[in-house]
Amino acid sequence: MELVLFTERLRLAPFVADDIDLAFEMWTDAEVVKYICDVLTEAEIHAEMVNSVKRGGDGGIGLWCVTDRQSGEKLGDSYLLPLPIDEDDTDYSLVVMGQMPDADIEIGYFLKRSAWGKGYATEICERLLQFAFQEIALNEVVASVEPENVASRRILEKCGLLNGGRMRCYGKDTPVYRMSRENWIELQQKP
C-alpha cells in the first residue's frame, strides 16, 4: 500500500520525527489549536512526537505531514486515527502496525495559519476519504468538530460528510459528521 498521497497541489507523507518543526509551528500557535487544546510546551511537543509517528493497520492509520508539492513548504498535518470516547486525546495504544483499531476512525486536518483559506483542507479531506474507502477499505469514517468551528463544518459538508448528530467523544458530547463507503461511492458516481 502506498502511503504517500498526492492531490493536485499537495503531498501527504507519513509523519516522521523530522516533522517536529511543523509540530512546533502549529502546536504553539493559539489560533491553530483554539478548538482542540491549549498551546503545547516544547517538552509536550517532544513527548507527543512518539505518538505522531505511529502507524496502525498496514500503515493506513496515523498522521500525514502535508506539504506544498511545488515549494516543499510544510503546511499542516492530517490523520486517520481511532476516535477517543472518554479520553481527551487519541488512545495511541490502539495504533499498532498490522492491526486495524477496533474503534471508529476519525478523519481530521490541521493547517498552520498561513495555509488557511486556500482550499487545502478540502483537498486533504477528499484525498483521505479516497484513501480510506479505496485503499484501506474502511466502512465508515467520522469527524468530530467543535460547534463554534464553522469553517471546519463547511469543509466536512463540502466533502460530502453527513451531519451525524452528537456523540460522546473526547470525553464530552460533541457534534460529529459521518461518511460510509457506500455514501462515498455514490458521490463518486455523480457527474
Structure in words:
The chain has 191 residues and is of the alpha+beta class. It has helices at 20-27, 30-33, 42-52, 120-135, 150-158, 181-189, and strands spanning 5-6, 10-14, 55-56, 61-68, 74-82, 105-111, 140-144, 162-169, 172-180. The mean pLDDT is 91. The chain starts with a strand and ends with a helix. Strands 1, 2, 3, 4, 5 and 6 form a six-stranded antiparallel beta sheet that branches. The protein has a single domain (5-189), classed as Gcn5-related N-acetyltransferase (GNAT) (Aminopeptidase), CATH 3.40.630.
SSE topology:
Layout: E1 5-6, E2 10-14, H1 20-27, H2 30-33, H3 42-52, E3 55-56, E4 61-68, E5 74-82, E6 105-111, H4 120-135, E7 140-144, H5 150-158, E8 162-169, E9 172-180, H6 181-189
Antiparallel strand pairs: 1-2, 2-4, 3-4, 4-5, 5-6, 7-9, 8-9
Helix pairs in contact: 1-3
Radius of gyration: 16 Å
Distance between the termini: 28 Å
Overall domain count: 1
CATH topology label: Aminopeptidase
In percent, how helical is the residue content?
25-40%
Q: What is the CATH class?
A: Alpha Beta
Largest sheet: 6 strands, antiparallel
Q: Flag low-confidence runs.
A: none
